Amino acid sequence: MDDSNDAASQPGPGTDTETTIGRTVDVPDTMTAPPRSDAQIPAYLEALGLPGLADIHVHFLPQNVLDKVWEYFDDAAKNYGRDWPITYRFDTDTRLRIVRELGIRAIPALTYPHRPGMAAWLNDWNAEFAAAHDDVIHCGTLYAEPESADYVPAALAAGAKLFKVHVQVGAFSPDDRVLDPAWEALEEAGAPIVIHAGSAPLPGKHTGPQAVANVLERFPDLRLVIAHMGMPEYDAFADLVEAYDHVHLDTTMFASGYFSSPAEVGPAYRERLARLEDRIVLGSDFPNIPYPYVDQISGLAGLGLGDDWMRSVLWTNGAKLLGLD
User: Counting CB atoms within 10 angstroms of each CB, which of 143, 177, 190, 317 has the fewest?
Assistant: First the structure.
């Protein structure tokens, strides 16, 4: 696709009704009313007394890779059985402007390989992208290949602070022994790793909680952040959070209304979410989401777990993981 439009001509928060008006959700009277549009998010954060959003699950990719990702989502009706329009399908400068206006104070640029020999190149791109933007987090990634023993420590030495692993797209098992040197380096560095290992929206040969549990048995201090709350194996991944001190869940697409709504979250899991308040981190999957960003915020508020819970999830927990606090 042509992604070369002038950034100044592209819409941002509050300037395009079609892409910024979200759903209306009910919250208890004791809670701050959630925003209904992207443009209302900064005022909502101010009302909560927060300096911004600590969203740990944002993607920026080399343009040729991003084009392939968007082509895949364009064919989502075949791949997923439902449409998946890219709400924030704009050029890089516009997308950076939008996340800044939303209130994201440190911007992840998560990348992930789908084949061997790709991760080291992505890590080089990540270093260059972060160097070009002061508020972008230097990110890294890996693949199950012998070279990961070298390029993961090299990325950490170069300043990478946040990693992404995608089990379904990469089609490898995270407990493959070839990754042990990489996991060891990441554990020693204390770098958070956003790992998509749940079996939704598509299961893979290696998705599910067991392989992640195997990794944690060998490297119990890894700072794994389970993407999408581990969807759909919610409770099994929550078990890992309770068993390991440094494991977190990220909220990407959870209760946003696309895969589930707040009303579909059962009482037992809500109670569990309340107990895990300090281990749940905001995630969004921006820009590759089929709804406005605000739906993620309002959906979480719609769980009715209180303003303090929202403060923890929207800022405090992620800020701590990312070293922003």
Answer: 177
